[in-house]
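(Deposited chain)
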Amino acid sequence: MSNLQELRFLVESLLMKKDEGPQKLSDLFGKIEQKKAPAHEWQDLALRIISDLGVPNFKRGSVFKICKDNTKEKVERAYNDTKELCKSGEKWKYFFKVIADSDSNIEHKIKST
């Protein structure tokens, strides 16, 4: 019977124990998860485009490649055009079309001169 009483006492004490939170300031900072900042400016731009345009997981690598391979001005122009012109639907698809069209326009201008 004494084992049963001890077990009951332990269970009741565990159920009644209050969460006192962190006891030290270092305990509080130890739980904070630090995110790494992007190493390059084009990575930050790609992350902004991915979040704003709702790019699905399977196309995120393509956005990073576009931002890495093209100038910041060209990518931002396509990004701004997408935000202005595409009011409904999948904006990320429109972004890829705008980038592709800007590449073909440049090639066309080079061939015509």
About this structure: The chain has a mean pLDDT of 81. The CA atoms of residues 38 and 90 lie 26 Å apart.
